[in-house]
């Protein structure tokens, strides 16, 4: 594979504490803008993985880790919001397979803490826990090779960068020209008194079967936030030992059937169901797949493609992803009793209520509903409000309209 076609990596240091939209902007907008400007290509699409060092997992044992879902998804939502604004300002397309001048960006949370220390003879290996979030050694062992690696030019950024390089040693061959420093932002962390134990944020339950639904046409940051938020709720079982094979957790994604989309604006540019379902699985593979050889062997996620149902498994079959077709507002939620949790957005909140009413009428337990944050894609530097809301530029309908304007670019 040509190195230019490989994804690039941006390592972001620990987020501000406490987390706020303004603090996140100050910390992450400068490095995101710099990295996106450097990976954008006029000749072809590019890929960028944004890995954020996040000390958000808690628990003494590897297979009993917990996290605050509210905090985790808020962080992911904030970063995708900044990405959307910056891409709009730089004329960068955000959708998957967007062609020239587009950057397919994925935000990955990496379990890491500045207090962690590794022995001189430490060698990383893939040791996933029971959550979708992996630690820095596992990330260094399973995600490579890269086109370029961007590090943030701040003290915290340098610390994260050096930790990563140390853990990647022996796994990857890196050239000096691949390592690029980018502008850093301002990160504030309010220190707590050492005499008062730090209170953990409320830890969220996890579930063996999680569901969400959507069209996922021209997969963009809003879709990626939803899919990531659902993955954060998965209770991933321990990998099997010997002949033992655990029952996999299941992530069920209802993907709207083509018939339901015929009345959409620029419907002739809507991607076929099969394309949309594949893109969902390929995106989730970036969060869930762990390969000792990285992706340098050229292998791509295997999908079992049946009519109206695409299935893929990850992490030694401990995670199963199902994309199923649906033609009404309920989708798989009223057909699969084992589903326990449902992810919704502000736009689909009413659908979540309808789903639970239907399940109760069937004598089933209602689902626990989780609502993701709104993707805050506004230019905060535009004080007089004269600039348009950048969120309109990353909607599927706008992407279809742009393709219609260019002509002849149907998928």
Automatic annotation (TrEMBL):
Coiled coil: none annotated. Gene3D superfamilies: HUPs. GO terms for biological process: coenzyme A biosynthetic process. One of its GO terms (molecular function) is dephospho-CoA kinase activity. InterPro entries: Rossmann-like_a/b/a_fold. This is Pantetheine-phosphate adenylyltransferase family protein. It comes from Staphylotrichum tortipilum. The lineage of its organism: Eukaryota, Fungi, Dikarya, Ascomycota, Pezizomycotina.
